[in-house]
Amino acid sequence: MRLRLTPRDTTIIDLLVQAGNALVTGADLLEAVIMSGPEDRADRLVKVRDAEHASDDIVHATMRKLNSTFVTPFDREDIYALASALDDVMDNMEAAADMVVLANPSRLPDGVETQLSVLREQAAITAAALPGLHTMKGLEEYWVEINRLENDADEVYRDMLAELFSGAYEPLELLKVREVIDALEDAADAFELVSHHVETIAVKES
Amino acid sequence: MRLRLTPRDTTIIDLLVQAGNALVTGADLLEAVIMSGPEDRADRLVKVRDAEHASDDIVHATMRKLNSTFVTPFDREDIYALASALDDVMDNMEAAADMVVLANPSRLPDGVETQLSVLREQAAITAAALPGLHTMKGLEEYWVEINRLENDADEVYRDMLAELFSGAYEPLELLKVREVIDALEDAADAFELVSHHVETIAVKES
Amino acid sequence: MRLRLTPRDTTIIDLLVQAGNALVTGADLLEAVIMSGPEDRADRLVKVRDAEHASDDIVHATMRKLNSTFVTPFDREDIYALASALDDVMDNMEAAADMVVLANPSRLPDGVETQLSVLREQAAITAAALPGLHTMKGLEEYWVEINRLENDADEVYRDMLAELFSGAYEPLELLKVREVIDALEDAADAFELVSHHVETIAVKES
Q1: CA distance A39 to A42
Q2: Which of A54, A181, B186, C97 is the most buried (most CB within 10 A)?
Q3: Is the ipTM of this complex over 0.90?
Q4: Rounded average pLDDT over A159-169
Q5: Is C42's Cβ below 8 Å from some Cβ in A?
Q6: Rounded-to-integer distance, Cα A48 and Cα A61, Å
Q7: What is the C-alpha to C-alpha distance for residues B19 and B62, in angstroms, rounded to an integer?
Q8: What is the H or E stretch that residue A54 is in?
């Protein structure tokens, strides 16, 4: 445990918490895009883009705060990496929403619903865990659970891949579906990367 | 602002500047490979490989200098990361040149020209910005501009993906074109990663 | 050269060595999965999974030791990164074994045998090099050699890509083979990333 000679400015942690909360909104909006029919997708995609811009603003505010703060609550580069990783999740969710519009597959396998519910759960527990950076409490449970959810995501993703390669899809349709499920898998992985950065901070603080 | 008790050896910054300049050459040579017909590509690819080897030599010289220098201008690991990121851009440009020869698509979408001009512009402003590591001046404009260019690259990349998935391409041809545009997109992303490492150094120095 | 004021606890290095040894087993088991016929693959895949779980256990033991040790042999975050990178190699090898079962290509190009022998060699020299973390001896030869092997892997991978794009494969079969050779290429890259983390440690210690 490090000795603290100065009180920590916790504004930066509050900003990270805000970035986590934005991911809950983002995951809901992503689900709305993907589960809607092609006719509504373009409109709903606009909301995902708005959420992504809001997330960008939070990350930039975090960076500005970081640049103007002498004593940061954790190592400057770890905060930077965590804020970037939170932004990467949002970027990945936007990319998945984007891809379903761009590739426009005729139908999506059922596993996509599981991928979306994993993302919503990962968003919820990430948002719930980040305030724990104030006290460094409850964080291990969080990253263990993110890892468990990521394993669930992997399993459903693998089942869908086997289905895609089974011969039941035409090559072009296979490629379209693949884009969407890959983008969703990347988002689940990005949540895990966030948890790794939280773990790095926790390891240093312990 | 850190106090400097010893003068900084700036040879390492000069080497990073050289690595940046090599990317200007690399982007020009990459464009020459891609925009030429299949019959000239193999010859021009040799020049990209030479540029990549020259870049490797600069990175290795940077690492050797880093190993033999007691007081480095910035944190040792940040210099290492930046030198590696500069080398990654060159690797990505070589991979793109390579891929157009390997996959040999019948024709490339017009957006590829935009991708190439973004890469040349990213190379130019990266090369122009790196000497700013001596004074830490003008770097924020650089990374904002790199990010803007990367967004341009993303947009044209997305348009080409939509075109590929529209049904206008046979699956095999789609896959071939995809390889080339993905490799070019990766190179644009790699420039952004360079700018992130410059930003990390600037954040620590501020 | 840093002055050491306290004796270093070398248990952590021993755990990293164990993680390296596990990769030798992993590479052998991966080869057994891929080179066997489809009928035996599922059974052999179980052994790769077991090896991956054993690797996870070693990494977790390393992390626990890291959390409970005051004076670590190297910077805490570099040990963390190295342990994670060793685990990533195993994850990539498991993913390759998994993918040959999921995608189930009709036949694999001959280059796959070269990919597998590169992986086995990379595993062998990684396992042989990691005990050098005790003395910091012989590490440069190791990372130079890993890089050379990775270049061999790249070359055979590129030749296979050219073959895949030559028109000799149906699109679905191309995609199946692609999955397997990409996963093997990723594993070779992951070995190189391990060597970079070893190099980072060596740079700081020098």
Answers
A1: 7
A2: C97
A3: no
A4: 94
A5: no
A6: 20
A7: 9
A8: helix A38-68
Render pLDDT for B54-76 as a digit per residue (tens, 0 to 9): 999 999 899 888 878 878 888 88
Work out the burial of residue A20: count CB atoms within 10 Å of its CB; fewer than 13 is exposed, 13-18 middle, 19 or more buried. Answer: buried
User: Tokens standing for A18?
Assistant: 């805000």
Cα B84–chain centre separation = 11
Is B66 within 8 Å of C203 when comparing Cβ atoms?
yes
Element (H, E) at A72: none
Interface check for A162 against chain C (CB to CB < 8 A): the answer is: yes
The count of residues in chain B is 206
**Among B77, B102, B179, beta carbon nearest to C200:** B77
Chain C interface test: which of A203, A204, A206 (most C C-beta within 10 Å): A203
pLDDT digits (tens, 9 = 90+) for A132-143: 999 998 899 999
CA atoms of B202 and B74, how far apart (whole Å): 9
Nearest to C159 by CA among C121, C198, C185, C130: C185
Count the Cβ atoms, other than its own, within 10 Å of residue A184: 31
Tokens of C60: 């977790």
- SS3 of residue B10 by DSSP: coil
Residue C67 and residue A162: Cβ atoms within 8 Å? no
Q: What is the pLDDT of residues C39-76, one digit of tens each?
A: 899 899 999 999 999 999 999 899 888 878 878 888 88
Residues 6+ apart with CB under 8 A from C149: C118, C121, C122, C125, C188, C191
Between CA C69 and CA C76 the distance in angstroms is 10
- Nearest by CB to residue A165, choosing from C63, C76, C103, is C103
Distance from C178 to chain B by nearest Cα, in Å? 11
Q: Which residues contact C116 (CB under 8 A, 6 or more apart)?
A: C27, C30, C31, C34, C35, C184
- Residue A8 gets the label, from left (phi > 0), alpha (psi -120 to 50) or beta, of beta
Question: Rounded to an integer, what distance in angstroms lies between the CA atom of residue A79 and that of residue C123?
Answer: 34
* Alpha-carbon span A163 to A126, nearest angstrom: 31
In sequence order, the 6+-apart residues with CB closer than 8 A to the CB of B118 are B149, B150, B152, B153, B156, B188
CA A72, chain centre distance (Å): 24
Please tell me the distance from the alpha carbon of residue B131 to that of residue B137, in angstroms, as a whole number.
Answer: 9
Q: How far apart are CA C18 and CA C59, in angstroms?
A: 9
Residue ranges per domain, chain B? Answer: 11-205
Question: Which of B171, B200, B206 has its CB closest to that of A171?
Answer: B171
Contact in structure between A118 and A50 (CB atoms under 8 Å): no
Residues of C in contact with A82 (CB under 8 A): none
> The domain C11-205 belongs to what CATH superfamily?
Phosphate transport system protein phou homolog 2; domain 2 (1.20.58.220)
Q: Length of chain A in residues, anyone? A: 206
**Nearest Cβ partner of C80 from A162, A167, A200?**
A200
Please report the number of interchain residue pairs, chain A to chain C, with beta-carbon separation below 8 angstroms: 34
Other Cβ atoms less than 10 A from the Cβ of B39: the count is: 7
- The share of chain B scoring above pLDDT 70, in percent, equals 96
CB A96 within 8 A of CB A178: no
* Three-class DSSP category at C102: helix
Look at the block and give the residue holding tokens 């700013």. B132
pLDDT of res. C1: 47
